[in-house]
Amino acid sequence: MPMALGLRFNESIRNRLELPRVEMPITTRCTLRCRDCGNLIPFFPHPVDFYINLLTKDVDDFLGNVDRVHRFILMGGETFLHRKLHKLVRHLIKQDKIDLVNLITNGSIIPEKDILQLLQHRKILVTISSYPVEVLPNKTRFIDTMKANHINYTIEDYLWVDLGGFNPAVDNSKKALKHRFTNCCRKLCHNLSNGEYHLCPRSVHGKQLGQFPPDDSDRVRFRDRKNPEAFRKELRELLHKEYITACSKCTGSNDKTLPPGVQIDKGTILLEKNDSQSSLALEK
Hints:
Helix content is about 30%, strand content about 20%.
């Protein structure tokens, strides 16, 4: 069921705001530099973990405005690189409004014992992304660790979609933007970042990278707010937009697929733009 339709159904039947899924990026650090990363992670010149206190606060502030989240997804970068991950996972497990805590990983980092113990909780699911073993030789060991510790996990097995990289050449006429957004494969990947609700990860990361000018109408702020009625109204307005600014730097295509995890060539460098977080991949 499409996200907008699902929300309208829940509101009309029970006057509740229940979300099928939301994603929360927690780090821009990663063990890989994937050429076709849909979240633009390789373009961050100074990858960092997001502050744990702000992450837990955003969880609380967000949940204060909704009735339930069926799947709360943690992702990166590489999720298991976050140094305070155990604190965030422990906090999420305790939230009655969250049914499932889903950690997305590339399978390159074997979790420490304290994390492994937390991952055994019935509310946890670990999803291992669809990278070939040639890219991640540690993947088999990671899977064996999940099995040995009786952790619920699943393995993705699909090709990636070509979103055009950092600066795709796309038609940005109003008609084209509407078409891309209507057919977008990522617009159901709603993101919580920096106290804001976005419709897709490229809206979050593209804004941080200076890839396109920010647009206040492309997000709903929830940090330091507990007003479910106002949040619901603004979210409804966001869901009814015909396109968002991030569409101007994305192909939004479901047509062209790519093999997962193709790495950026070692000869590729990241060039910072002045003092901003923007960067470009240039060949030496």
